[in-house]
Queue: 2 jobs
Job 1
Amino acid sequence: MRPLLPLLLSCTLLAAGPAGRPIRALIIDGQNNHAWQETTPVLKSILGASGRFTVDVATSPPHGADMSKFQPKFADYDVVVSNYNGDAWSTQAKVDFVSFVRNGGGYVSYHAADNAFPDWKEYQEMIGVGGWGERTTQKSGPAIRYRNGRIALDLTPARCGSHGSRLPFLITMRDLSSPIATGLPTVWMHAPDELYDTLCGPAQNVGVVATAHSDPANKGTGEDEPMLMTLRYGKGRIFHTTLGHDVAAMQCVGFIATLQRGVEWAATGLVTQSVPADFPGADKPSVRK
Ligand code: ZN
């Protein structure tokens, strides 16, 4: 019976990706104000567990080192997942990355990747909004709010990027037409995590897939802040998740499933994964240790 397992596995994979092959994903890390050495293996294992992806990792030189030889071969992949928040890339790496997405490559901005590259115009257009890095609404563009059932762009002068203490919070799915949202509960409880608020940027053509209410009692804004977003850049698709500060937050089944779905959507425009039976409801978080 031994030989059957690889056969079954390859059938699963063959059914998944573009042109009948696994989706090729590349995780970028190497510099971050977060523990990328701990979180990249979790990202890799989450994607691997879906049976949809092959996953490689490109690790940059450390902060302050020569970045000129960091030249990931983006074009060899269907989707790039960033766990990177650090030094500027070389001009060639930036040109290659923009060309990759513009020509239809998928990009996923995971948590602090939206803190990165505040001065890189094309990158900001891809992620739509970001935080920290001396971003302000005056300099970087409006903050996105979700008010009265629609996106509102808020130019009130503000520093961009903040969060309260890590607590569980409710996520509300807003764009039920997004393949990423299909079949998920409309409201679900996320495990303790940072709830990013007042993200700002070019904010063009942003689809807000999910929001969370930023509670003033936890240093929040009192606004519904975007948590999951989708964007287009050229022919490329971008999935932007603000969630997943640390390994504990990444054990949330809501994080796991929305990441798996978002990466598949960014790569192919489709989501073929079913909703896991342990997906959280509105009452309490559901985690996989
Ligand atoms: Zn964080």
Job 2
Amino acid sequence: MTIASLNTLPAWQALETHAIALRETHLRALFADDPDRFARFSFALGPLLADYSKNRVTTETMGLLMELARARNVEAGRAAMFAGEHINGTEDRAVLHVALRNRATRPMMVDGVDVMADVRTTRERLSAFAESLRSGAWTGATGKPIRHIVNIGIGGSHLGPMFVADALKDFQRADLSLAFVSNPDRAQIDEVLAGLDPAATLFVVASKTFTTAETMFNAGIARTWLVDKLGQGAVAKHFAAISTNLDAAAAFGIPKDNVFPMWDWVGGRYSVWSAIGLSVMIACGADVFDQFLAGAESMDRHFETATLDQNLPVILAMIGIWHADFLGSTAMAVLPYDHRLRLLPFHLQQVDMESNGKGVLTDGAVTSHSGPIVFGGGGSDSQHSFYQLLHQGPLPIPCDFIAALKGTDEASRDLLLANMFAQAEALMMGRSGADLAPHRIFPGNRSSTTLLLEELTPYTLGMLMALYEHKVFVQGLVWGLNSFDQWGVELGKELAKSLQPALVGTELKGRDSSTAGLVAAYLKIKGGTA
Ligand code: F6P
């Protein structure tokens, strides 16, 4: 079905006109004119408070954005996801990560089958496996309890679990170490292995496909390391796997009791809620993982049932579209003011850019409306690095500030929050004055959203992550993109595969002069033939 062009929609055109009218209005004036602006444009959802009042929006803007959302059938798109329809058209798949955090008795259907029985059985197996490792009932090949977990994966099989594990460090058992390996540069895995006792180590090979080159390479290194130390028979007690490709995991030598399934309706970047979260579950315990799911489940219920204008993922999604399409922002910054959330920008880069970094609509037509460049870093470190550009660079970049209100040390929280609130204020207010030298002027009028968690817990973390997932989905619906495929990563993979023989000496044919020149430079140093 052809998708109506966005800019022919009345709501779109009204937003264009509105954007011109609002161009000269400074956020300072919007605040000065409306003492209730914070109350009007903030949203409390259980332990999460979202303040979007510092965005360049008015009541009229929000009304028009909601009209646009309705014109793009966001409600129907949302219902289609929860109903298990094949909304990932290019791969002909359902998209049902929400089933993974469905802790209720509600059935969730894919192709006429309720997937919840499989989801629950897998959850129970995972939790039994994790608890037996934690209690020491499960031992390695020499009878020692497992005390080191190494997650081997990449992309969604790495970024999600690594971020969550780091964020929940306070919930991890002190006598269990957890490391993540993703890079095929041996430097990484060698560094991790150097400190480990093989007899007390479990490798978790996390790969939806079990064919990803980097993961298979690292898993092979880990297996060789283990077999060298403990013999071939040890693999069964020191490897677990998560995959849709159960045969490949078995062929690798992992017994089926240690292999946990996932399903084609779980996208990699949405998979930490599945068995891909096993490393987190081992480190933190099944009850903590369950709370993490519960937080996401609460956001799912909100997203599924709230009307569009009272729906936090929808509100944030539409504000993002406002910035991208009407205010000329091609990027957004994610700025967590909590050390434990410092990896959030990396996780969100994949969630957002792998989902909506596309130039083709679901009907195949070319589009110029798609997701922003997502970047960021932990505050307040980033203040001393790239904030200069946020404050005085020529391009407006909307910012998401994120923090937890409770922390272990009050003094440090005071300092962090003072900085975070001040940055949002400075971006919004700016500074001007006839007596100021030009380089001391801050234009202000720069949008930001602040997300405050009462406390960083498994529950609030689950809420936060699900909030961003749904936000990205809603944006994809409005733009008319398939947010759930990632064909853009394929070409590079294919070319790398076809180049590999040339790097080990086979004659390189049919490549451009730059690629050939680079290969030759490598071979010259390596000592092969160019
Ligand atoms: O190359 C991108 C990608 O397919 C991601 O979408 C995915 O998260 C990652 O690779 C890892 O894939 P797998 O879990 O199959 O190893």
